[in-house]
Each structure stands twice: as C-alpha cells, then as structure tokens.
Amino acid sequence: MTINTNEQDFFSVIKDRHSVRKYQPGIQMPEEDLQAILESAVMAPSSWNLQHWKFLVIQNQETKERLLPIAYNQEQVVDSSVVVAVLGDLEANTNAEIIYSAAVEHGFMNQEVKEGLVGQINGAYEANPQIARDEAIRNASLASMQLMLAAKAKGYDTCAMGGYDPVKFVEEFKVPERYVPVMLISIGKAAAAAHGSGRFPVEQMIVKETF
C-alpha cells in the first residue's frame, strides 16, 4: 500500500508523541500556536455532538505556582509553557437545544428530528444520573488526546497528568459545580527526552469478534 506524505506525517506525530516531564523553562508559546492547538482539540468527536469539555488555560507563572502544590509539586507545571486543565461538562445535555437549533437553521436536520434528539438526550440524562459524569469524562478525554496530538504537530511536547488534588483544584480555581476536572496537560518544549517505555505487542491487545 502506498502511503502519501500526509499519512506519513500523521503517523509520525502519533509515534513521536511521548509524555515529557522536563521542559525548557521560560519558553513563551505564541498565542497563535495555542489557539491552533485548542481549535484542533474542539474538533474532537463527542456523544450527540454535545462537546462536553471546557479548557482552563494556565499560562501566567504566578498562576502556575499556585497550581504547583495542588499537582504534588510536579516541576512540569511551572517549567512548561502552558498547563491546560481539561474539564468535563456535567450539564452538557443543556447544550443540545443550542446545538440542534443551529443544525436546523443551517438545514442539517428538520425541526422534528431536532426535537426528537433533544428529548432523547434529556431523557437519557434524567434516567441515569451516572451518564452525566461518564459522558463528561469520556468525551473530554477524546478532546484531550486530540489536543496533545495537535501540540505535537505544532512542535510542542505534552504530558497528561492525573496526579493532582481535584478538590483543591476546584477550590483554588473556583471551578463551577457544572464541571468535573478530568486531567491536566502540560505543553512546552522538552528539556530532556521522555523516558523509554515498553508497549505490549498489538496482537496481545486485540480480541476479534468475541472473547
């Protein structure tokens, strides 16, 4: 099979993306780079297209210093150019009316289909309270991976961090109850290569048809 240049670039980005924990301090990310990365992240797929994410962008050094103890003093917090806190939207179902009204306006669906979908979504959220949290985390995670790949394509390194105190984070950064912290992502220029890590052979991770 012939692989074109775009495919080669895409697979290189995936292959070259690693979790980098040591960054060159003091590197300022141009706003246009950050904007391009975030615009790529919000193109991620989401259940019902509800776009269950919010990004809290932390660039100011003083703000990163406030985050440092909450993230258990991981140095990448203060040395990276930007830390993006990815939040999941627990009330994403309330986006449905806006999103699907716009779809009707642009001719993507009719009013009857729109009303059916909005009813389906709200019904699902009301029937199972757990769905709000599950969908918030699932879909914000999809956006997170897309963000990290976009950053790598722009020449930046990243590290997804689950090591932080979510309760203190919510308190310190006044996160509304609507949002659940999903992860922190550091973005910057590597000062040292990511340490090596092994991967299981793909054959070991695949089950076809059924167990």
Q: What's the quick description here?
A:
This protein has 211 residues and is α+β, with helices and mostly antiparallel strands.
Q: Mind explaining what this structure looks like?
A:
Helix 5 (96-105) runs antiparallel to helix 6 (111-127). Helices cover 45% and strands 14% of the residues. It has one domain: 3-Layer(aba) Sandwich (NADH Oxidase), CATH 3.40.109.10. The protein is globular and about 55 Å long. It is an alpha+beta fold. The chain starts with a helix and ends in a 23-residue tail after the last strand. One of its GO terms (molecular function) is oxidoreductase activity. Belongs to the nitroreductase family. Residues 14-189 form the Nitroreductase domain. Keywords: Oxidoreductase.
How many helix segments? 8
- Identify low-pLDDT runs: none
CATH class: Alpha Beta
What overall form do the CA principal axes indicate? globular
Overall structural class, as computed from helix and strand content, comes to alpha+beta
- CATH topology call: NADH Oxidase
Please tally the β strands and state the result.
Answer: 4
Distance between the termini: 31 Å
| Strand order in the sheet with the most strands | 1-2-4-3
Q: CATH architecture, please?
A: 3-Layer(aba) Sandwich
Q: How many structural domains in the coordinates?
A: 1
